[in-house]
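User: I'll paste a sequence; please echo it back and then give the predicted structure.

Assistant: Echoing your sequence first, then the prediction.
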Amino acid sequence: MERKSTFKKITTSLIAVCLMTIASTAIGQNSADKEPTFPGYDIRGFVQQQFFYDEMPGVPAQFTMYRARVGVDGALAERIRVNVTGGFVEPPQNTPRLVQAFMDYRVNNYITLRAGQFLIPFGLEGPEVITLNPAIERSLAIRRLNTFSLFRDVGVQAGGNISRFNYAIAIVNGTGGNQPEQMNPKDITGRFGFQLSENFEAGISGHFGNYYPNQEDESYESRYRLGIDLNFTGDPFFVRGEYIQRTDNLPNSSEIKMYGGYLLAGYSLSQRLEGITRYEFYKPNSDLDDNLLQAYTIGANYYFVRRTRLSVNYEFRNNELNPDFGNLFTVQLQVVL
């Protein structure tokens, strides 16, 4: 009976995803690529369903509904935009959560103010909507060096563009999305980018904040991150990369330093098909030997319409701290409304 129930759930999920793929083709005018008009609102959302096989012992191959989000994005007035997005399924617990809820006020052509829960401005992959990532998931290095749940937090932000220069600076709680604040000091994070040419941009990011090393101790310590990034958006070839250093101060007047990054390249083989490759590395303690994690990814994306796509990734992984950390094969159907 249990096997029949599992088979029924998988079959139902696959049918639902196929129906959403057909629907997304028919309602292209509601695509998430379209800018909201004034006055007006768009219903935006996406579903990511995966099949993955992890070579780590004890992890069964399985189908999973990885993410499922829906929200409203639109204009309240000529200078005011709002976005509210909820997740019916959010990793890693696969539970419902508020993803983001913010309001933008465009002061002028150079300054836009934002308040609410939003993506933190740091690096390339962090503040990018996940459906735009050429790989199925953000790199492991970026995820482990990140300090914010959902890559989001609650606070205020100022950002904009001035000629070839763009910027975003935010003051946030520092605890991450949907997390209550624990201390008075706030975190400051931001990214500054410069358009070197029409298709080539370089950026630098910084994050300075505080955290509790021990939840049972009320004393907090400081931590900071620094990052650089490069992004070339050519056609048919594109490439981007990031490097991040992070330092967490510890109660005994010592500190732990870590670093990591990635280099991702892709090539459009046709209007619908692209191939990608990525190298990434992460070291959780730069003062110690034999703790380097490396991964090489090869993959392909087939686009049905806009961002609705079928993706295949295979990751060759090596973790010096954990020999059982094996390779990972993932297939994902992403349906974007």
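Residues 1-33 have pLDDT under 50 and may be disordered. The radius of gyration is 21 Å.
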